[in-house]
Write a structure and sequence with these properties.
flat; mainly alpha; 100 residues; 2 domains
């Protein structure tokens, strides 16, 4: 008597692997709370420590924004390029269709 249908076995195995990866990430997240330098910079109450924490904050924001900025720029350029090519193609088609 077979309990698991062989057709769905790869799907079930995939979901089990995804669930296992999520559990591992959640268990390790408490260990990787912050690097020692960040933690020391945030624990200090002096102005230099606050400036260090602000520097980390802005560098993290910058690193998080860069992939979206780069992909958005290339995506926008590709969109404009395709749009210009379509307009040029339609203009050329209309010019050929109407004899002078």
């Amino acid at each position: 008597m077979k309990v698991i249908n062989h057709q769905f076995a790869p799907v079930v195995a995939g979901w089990v692997l995804i669930a296992l990866a999520i559990v591992i990430v959640l268990l390790i997240a408490s260990v990787a709370a912050a690097c020692p330098t960040c933690k020391e910079g945030l624990d200090q109450n002096d102005p230099q420590g606050n400036a260090l924490a602000a520097g980390y904050y802005y560098s993290i924001l910058f690193m998080m924004a860069m992939p979206f900025t780069i992909l958005g720029t290339f995506g926008g350029l590709a969109y404009l390029s395709i749009r210009r090519a379509q307009q040029a193609s339609s203009t050329a088609t209309h010019a050929r269709a109407e004899p002078a």
